[in-house]
Specification:
single chain; 93 residues; mainly alpha; 81% helix; 0% strand
């Protein structure tokens, strides 16, 4: 029971900001709109990092254990998302 509560709270940390940013995504100021898009995309990147960490830790597809592999997964997802945010920001202006 305690594990389910922890799992719900962990996923609520990225779901709630994404929903709130999506609900108020109609402001006229381009900078504010960009910040809201960044919030949504960052929440998506946290979800993708969590999914990739889940898959990496549950599937044994490597023969050797790499201690920093989860960090590299997190970093790679956020670099890709950062480049996407840069593209969105540049396209708006």
């Amino acid at each position: 029971m305690c594990d389910r509560i922890i799992t719900i709270m962990r996923h609520a940390a990225w779901i709630v900001p994404a929903i709130l940013a999506f609900m108020i995504l109609s402001p006229g100021v381009p900078e504010l709109r960009t910040l809201l898009i960044i919030t949504i995309v960052e929440c998506l990147s946290l979800a993708l990092s969590g999914l990739s960490a889940f898959v990496y830790t549950n599937l044994d597809f490597t023969k050797m254990y790499f201690a920093n592999a989860l960090g590299f997964i997190f970093l790679g997802v956020h670099i890709c998302i950062g480049l996407t945010i840069l593209g969105v920001y540049l396209a708006q202006f």
